Amino acid sequence: MRTALHRLLEHIQAAPACLVTVESTQGSVPRERGAWMALLAGHDTPLGTIGGGHLELQALQEARERLADHLAGRPARAPLVRRALGPSLGQCCGGVVVLRFECVGAEDAPALRERLAPPLHPVALFGGGHVGHALARVLAPLPFALHWIDSRDGVFPPAPPPQALCEHSDPVQAAVPGLAPRSFVLIMSFSHAEDLDIVAACLARQRARGDLPFIGLIGSRTKWATFRHRLAARGFSEQELAQVTCPIGVPGIAGKEPEVIAVAVAAQLLQRLGQA
To answer: Which of 23, 138, 190, 192 could form a disulfide linkage to 100, CB 3.0–4.6 angstroms apart?
Structure first.
């Protein structure tokens, strides 16, 4: 899956685009400062969004006109446009949005990559099974940098998500010391034995560094009860074991299909992201 930014950077290598960015805001508005959309030359549908509604419709029309001027070699208009979100726009937010319009091309790609790329929080995903694949797809457009790890060969897709780093590690728990600091860890390998070793390695790292804010283990409460007993036998305290979340996923979602589990887990990570 290609993100909107990847598609924009790919497109402007051959043709221009008009980039519309939320420059500043006042009061209640649909999107935050830095939100963006881009109208690609030769396309009708934009990449990204600045909040929808009449604000976005007017901005799209403005982008079409500016792109036409750019292609025709006409002088550029003033880059900033102020919009009040009141009755005239049919939006009752009541705030004010200042939009920046700019036509961009291949020469702008490096700066755009740095400017528009969202900050990504590291996620370490242990397991390349059905749920792992579904979760990697769900996480791809979200603000996460995925480190995907498995002990088996040939389990990763031929074209991994753009933000994913795939690693073969045997034994699989040997990858734990090298995880990025502050990683959210998700454990769903093909065997309970591997899962147990990964959890133990994560808890050992927590004991030494305390830099893994979320350790999530797929499975039932019965599985976790068994793991708690075995981990306690390895010398981990109740306080240390309390750092593990099992089952994973936001509560209230009962489906067990891989895609359903993936959405529930991604939602839980987004909640944690707001607390990180």
So the answer is: 23
For residues 242 and 142, membership in a common domain is answered with yes
Distance CA 47, CA 41 (A): 12
Which of 60, 87, 116 is the C-terminal boundary of a domain? 116
pLDDT digits (tens, 9 = 90+) for 48-65: 999 888 899 999 999 999
Structure tokens, 267: 């939602």
Are 19 and 102 in a shared domain?
yes
DSSP code of residue 242: T
Of 249, 182, 260, the residue nearest 216 (C-alpha): 249
Q: Are residues 141 and 109 in the same domain?
A: no
pLDDT tens-digit profile of 18-77? 999 999 999 988 899 999 999 999 999 999 999 888 899 999 999 999 999 999 999 999
Cα–Cα distance measured from residue 207 to residue 205, given in angstroms and rounded to the nearest whole number: 5
Give percent of the chain with pLDDT exceeding 70.
Answer: 96
Decide: pTM greater than 0.90.
no
Backbone angles phi, psi at 120, to 5 degrees: -110, 130
Report CA-CA distances (Å) from 187 to 137, 148, 173, 203, 205.
16, 10, 10, 13, 15
